[in-house]
C-alpha cells in the first residue's frame, strides 16, 4: 500500500479506536496523517486529543469548535421537521456526521491530502454516513476505513494492539473498558458490553446527562421557549445563541430525568442493534416545536409535514444529508415555518415533558369558532351538507352491496 496515498485526514476523537487507527495508518500506508477533532459539545474537553495526537505522531492537528454551526445549520433544520427515526430516535449521532465529513473534506483540500479516514466499523451506519458525505463533497477522494481492512476484528484485539503499542486505554467507573459512546450537544449514545443483550436493563451509573426519573425533583418546573420562524431563540425570555440554547435545554431536561431512550433500531446495513440514548434538550425542543406548530400551522401543511417526516428522518439516518431529495424536502419544511413563531410553556416532571401553554401572534386558533357557548361565526347546520357529501360514496357503496 506504500505510495498509494500521500496524506490522510483522520476524523480523530482521541479515544481508543481512533488512537489505534492513527498508529495503524502510519504503519500501513507510511504517510503523513492529519488529525481532525470536532468540538460538537461532547461534554468533555477536546484539548487532550491534541496531546494524544502529538504523542501519536500526527503531522498536523486540527481541533475546532463547531458547536454553533452544528446546532444552527444541522440540528435546528432537522427539528423544524419534528424528525424522529422509527417513531422514537432523535438522530443525535446521524445529524453530526455530515458536518464532520464536510469539515474533513475542507481540511483535506487545505492540507493537500488525497485521502480521508474514519473510525466507523464495517457493521454500522456511520461508515455510510461519513462516506456518502465525502463522496458528495469530493467525488474523487480516497477513503480508508480501517475496520474493513485490518485484522483487529474485535474489541479484545484492539485492546491488545493498544497495549503492545503503548497507547493509553481509558477505563469506566467500574474499572473496565468503556461502553462505545458517541456524544455531542444533542445527545450521548451507549452501545456494547451488557447492552448487547436487549433483555438486560442498563446500569444507572452509565448515564451522564440525566438523573433517573425516580431521583428527579418532586416539584415540577415550568419553562418557556420562544420560537421565531420555526427555530427556538429564547428560554424564559432570555435570548440565546443556538448552542447556548440547546445547552440550557440539556441542563433543564437532564435535571428532571427527561430524554432517556432504550431502543432496538434497524440499521441501514440490515441488522438490528440496541442503543441507549440521552437527549434531554432535544426531547424538550421536539415537544415545544410541535406545541407552537399546533396553533400556527394550517391542517393541510401540518399533516403533509407529518407524512414526509419519516422519509426525511430515514434520509438523515441513512446518511443522505447532501442528497438532492433531502434538500428538496428541507426547502418544503422551511417554507412551512414562516409563521411558526410564538411561545410554548412546558411542564417538566420526573421524566416527562408536557405542553402547558402556547401563544402566538400568528395563531390560527379561534375561540369564537370552537367555543361551546353561543356564537355568531359558525352555522352548525352547515355540517349536515358537509357530512352528506363526504358520505355519498359510502352510501353508494352500501346500496351496491345491498343489491
Keywords:
alpha/beta; five-stranded antiparallel beta sheet; 40% helix; elongated
Overall description:
- The chain has 403 residues and is α/β, with parallel strands linked by helices.
- It has 3 domains: 7-69 and 94-178, 3-Layer(aba) Sandwich (Rossmann fold); 183-359, Alpha-Beta Complex (Argininosuccinate synthetase, chain A, domain 2); 369-402, no CATH class.
- The protein has 12 helices and 14 strands.
- Helix 1 links the parallel strand 1 and strand 2.
- The protein is elongated, with a radius of gyration of 25 Å.
- The termini are far apart.
Write the layout of secondary structure elements.
Blueprint: E1 7-11, H1 16-29, E2 32-39, H2 48-55, E3 60-65, H3 67-79, H4 97-111, E4 115-117, H5 126-137, E5 142-144, H6 155-164, E6 180-183, E7 188-191, E8 221-228, E9 231-235, E10 238-239, H7 242-255, E11 260-266, E12 272-278, H8 280-296, H9 299-318, H10 324-336, E13 342-349, E14 352-359, H11 367-370, H12 382-402
Helix pairs in contact: 1-6, 3-7, 4-5, 7-8, 9-10
Quick overview:
The protein has 403 residues and is α/β, with parallel strands linked by helices. It has helices at 16-29, 48-55, 67-79, 97-111, 126-137, 155-164, 242-255, 280-296, 299-318, 324-336, 367-370, 382-402; strands at 7-11, 32-39, 60-65, 115-117, 142-144, 180-183, 188-191, 221-228, 231-235, 238-239, 260-266, 272-278, 342-349, 352-359. The strands form three sheets. Strands 3-2-1-4-5 form a five-stranded parallel β-sheet, sandwiched between helices.
